[in-house]
Write a structure and sequence with these properties.
Porin; single chain; 9 strands; 9-stranded mixed β-sheet
Length: about 180
């Protein structure tokens, strides 16, 4: 059953996210005299897959630059899924919430922690319940590279260390995020 979700999981993980986020490093420590409104940033991600498996996803986020190297925030998630690949025709949505923290150990290398909880339609997970809550605790790392005055490119890999029995992801499968950050 989990193998049936491997291909959609790969599409989800490799969806290109275009985000608006904090891309400029300030000249001094972010906590030294900078007004709160200048520490806050907004962004998110978009994802889409079309065909016999259709997924349209929106992931808005709000973050705060605590220091030059440490950021934290919250990300919401909504996915519309239409899956016609198997003997069932699933049409529904998933939604979730995650709290993240990122710490730059080098200008281009960061560590990532993200406890999250997602609500899936139980039918999508071959469960009898209407909706199913699935907790995650993602741990990972990534690389980012400045590609312009207000933009970065990044790649991130993370793993779920909870491994909940209702998770649609294969056991200990890495999740990859690839994207471009655009500071507005």
């Amino acid at each position: 059953m989990i193998k049936k979700f491997l291909l959609p999981g790969i599409f989800v993980c490799f969806s290109l996210g275009i985000i608006a986020q904090d891309t400029q490093r300030p000249s001094k420590n972010a906590s030294d005299g900078v007004p709160l409104r200048d520490k806050i940033y907004f962004g998110g991600g978009l994802g889409a897959t079309f065909g016999s498996y259709t997924r349209i996803a929106v992931y808005p986020l709000i973050g705060i630059r605590v220091t030059d190297d440490f950021r934290t925030g919250m990300q919401l998630a909504y996915e519309y899924i239409n899956d016609k690949r198997y003997y069932i025709n699933y049409d529904g949505s998933n939604y979730g919430l995650g709290i993240f923290a990122q710490y730059n150990v080098l200008p281009q290398l960061f560590f990532h922690l993200e406890p999250a909880i997602w609500n899936y339609n139980g039918y999508y997970l071959f469960d009898q319940n209407d909706r199913v809550w699935v907790p995650y605790f993602f741990v990972g790392a990534g690389l980012s590279q400045q590609i312009g005055r207000n933009s970065i490119a990044y790649i991130q890999v993370k793993f779920d260390i909870i491994q909940h029995e209702k998770s649609p992801y294969s056991s200990w499968a890495p999740l990859f995020d690839v994207g471009v950050g655009i500071g507005l």
